[in-house]
Amino acid sequence: xxxxxxxxxxxxxxxxxxxxxxxxxxxxxxxxxxxxxxxxxxxxxxxxxxxxxxxxxxxxxxxxxxxxxxxxxxxxxxxxxxxxxxxxxxxxxxxxxxxxxxxxxxxxxxxxxxxxxxxxxxxxxxxxxxxxxxxxxxxxxxxxxxxxxxxxxxxxxxxxxxxxxxxxxxxxxxxxxxxxxxxxxxxxxxxxxxxxxxxxxxxxxxxxxxxxxxxxxxxxxxxxxxxxxxxxxxxxxxxxxxxxxxxxxxxxxxxxxxxxxxxxxxxxxxxxxxxxxxxxxxxxxxxxxxxxxxxxxxxxxxxxxxxxxxxxxxxxxxxxxxxxxxxxxxxxxxxxxxxxxxxxxxxxxxxxxxxxxxxxxxxxxxxxxxxxxxxxxxxxxxxxxxxxxxxxxxxxxxxxxxxxxxxxxxxxxxxxxxxxxxxxxxxxxxxxxxxxxxxxxxxxxxxxxxxxxxxxxxxxxxxxxxxxxxxxxxxxxxxxxxxxxxxxxxxxxxxxxxxxxxxxxxxxxxxxxxxxxxxxxxxxxxxxxxxxxxxxxxxxxxxxxxxxxxxxxxxxxxxxxxxxxxxxxxxxxxxxxxxxxxxxxxxxxxxxxxxxxxxxxxxxxxxxxxxxxxxxxxxxxxxxxxxxxxxxxxxxxxxxxxxxxxxxxxxxxxxxxxxxxxxxxxxxx
Length: 669
Known about the structure:
Elements: H1 12-38, H2 45-77, H3 84-87, E1 98-104, H4 109-126, E2 132-138, H5 143-155, E3 165-170, H6 177-189, E4 195-198, E5 204-205, H7 207-219, E6 223-227, E7 231-233, H8 238-262, E8 273-276, H9 277-283, H10 302-312, E9 316-319, E10 326-329, H11 334-350, H12 362-391, H13 395-400, H14 403-427, H15 431-436, H16 440-473, H17 492-516, H18 518-532, H19 534-542, H20 544-552, H21 559-562, H22 566-580, H23 589-594, H24 596-608, H25 617-628, H26 637-644, H27 647-659
Parallel strand pairs: 1-2, 1-4, 2-3, 6-9, 7-10
Antiparallel strand pairs: 4-8, 5-10, 6-8
Helix pairs in contact: 1-2, 1-12, 2-8, 2-12, 2-14, 4-7, 4-22, 8-14, 10-12, 11-12, 11-16, 12-16, 12-17, 16-18, 17-18, 17-19, 24-27, 25-26, 25-27
C-alpha cells in the first residue's frame, strides 16, 4: 500500500481558482432560476438586488459544499490505503525539544490542570515524553484564580524521570492578549525549543498525536505550522452534542477537502497546532494596524496573520487532516456560543484590510476573505430576508412562484444536506464507525434531528452576527473575558433578555411576508421559525436535562461518546479525583496570606519568572491595616493583585496577619 501524497508546492492558488470558478458558475445557474421566478414581466430594482444577494448567499453555501465533495472524492478514492502517519512514522528526534503551551486567562484551574495531567499521562505512555516540556502561561487577572492556578501547579509535584516538566508563569501585565502571552514565552524561553505546540485552555491532545506532530516537523524542515483539526467534545446540553455530532460526521470530508485545496498554503486556527519556533520568532512579529480600534489597533485574530507571515517567509502551513486525537470543548449554551463568536467576528473583520495588503500569499488572502465572509454573510442574509417582500410584491411573480419556488427551496435545502449525506456515505464504509454512531437507524435519525436544529438556530446566529458586524463598524470594541465552558443551563429570564429582539423581528417579518405572498412566507418559514421561537429554543438547547433526554433515546451519538478516547477518560478521572481531594476548595485570600509555605512558594514563582513588581504605597498601607484589623473580609481585588506581585509587601502583611491573630509568623525569609 502506497503512502498518501504530500501536498504539491504552490498548488493552492490553482486549486482555489478552480473551485471558485465552479462555485461561481453553479451559483449563477441557480440564481438564474431564482430570477425567472421573482422578476416577473418587468424587473424592478428590488428584483435585481434580491437576486444579487441570492447569488452571494448561494455561492457561500456552494463553496463549502464543494470543499466537502472534493474531500469525499479523495477519501473514497484512498479507502484502504495506509495513512501517512503510519507509513512515515519513524523514531523521534529527541534532541529537538518541543514546548507545549497552555495559555490561560481567568479560566477554571481545575479544568486546565485536569486536561494537562491527562496529556502528560498520555505522552508518558508513548515513551517519547522526554523531548516535551509543558508551560502554563497565565494572563489571569483575578487573584483568587491566580492563587488557585499556583496551588494546582504545586500539587503536580516536582518533575519525575520519564515525565515532562511542567512550568508555570504568570504575567502581571497581559498586553497583547494571547498573542502577547505567546510572544512573552518566545522572548524568554523560545530559543530552547525547536517547536512549540500551542493549545487553548480547553484543549486535549493525545500523546501519540503530539509525538506524530513533532515527527512530521522533524521530517520536513520547511514545515512552519502543522494544524490539527480539533474535534469539539460535546457536554450534556443538546447544543454541544449537536456540535460534536455534526463535526464528527462532516469533519473528515471538509478537512480532507480543505487540506487539498489549501495544500502548503493552509491556515492556523490559534490552537492544537505545532509551530517551528525559530521561524515564528523571526517572521511572525505583529504590529498594530493603522487607525483606532476596533478595525485598527491591536490584531485580535492573530492566528490567520501569523500563518500568512510564516508562509510568506517560505515555510509551509499544512492541515493534518489525517491526524486524530485532537479535541476542544464547545460552548453549552447559545449565548455563550454567541459571546465566543463576537470576539472572532471583530478579529476577522480586521482582516478585510489585509486581503489587499502587499506581499501576502494568494492562499492567505483567501483565508482572510473566507474569514470575513463567515460573519459578513449574516448581514447579507438579513438584507435578503428584509428585501424579499419587495421582490414578491409583483402579483404576477407571486402567481408564477408555486411549484418552481418549492423546487428551488428544495434545491437549497439539498445543498445544506449534501455535506451530511457525504458524511453518511463515509461512515457507511466501516461497520465499527457505524456502530460508534449507534447503528444506521440512529445515525440517520440523528442526522435529520441535527439538521433541523441547525436550520432553527441559523437565523438566530444570523441575527447575532449581524449585530456584531454592525456594532464593530460603528466602533464598538469587544472585551476580553474568560469563557464559561462548564455552563449548560439557561434560565428563562436570561433567555428573554438575550432573545426578545429576535422574537420581535421574527413576528414582524412573518406578518409582512404573509401580506406580500403566501409563497414568500413558505420560502422564509425555516428562517422565521427559529427567530419566532428563539427563547424556548435557546432554553431547550442549553438544558442538560433535555440533552440527557435526547441521549436516552439514542440521538446524536458519536464514536467519541460511545467509546470515549483514552485522553478524555483520563481527563474526567483527574477532574473527579481533584474534586474528591481533601481541601479541594480554593482558599480565600486571607487563608493564603496566613499560609507561610504558600506565601514562600508564591514568592519563589514570581521571582523565578521575573514577575516582581513593587506595589503602590497606598495599597500596602491599606492591606497592612486590613491584616492588623483582623482581616474579616477579603480586600479589593486590585489591591490583592498588586501586593501579590511585591514579595516584600506580601511578607510584611503575612507577618502582620499572624501577629495580630495572636499567632506568630510561619515565614520570615
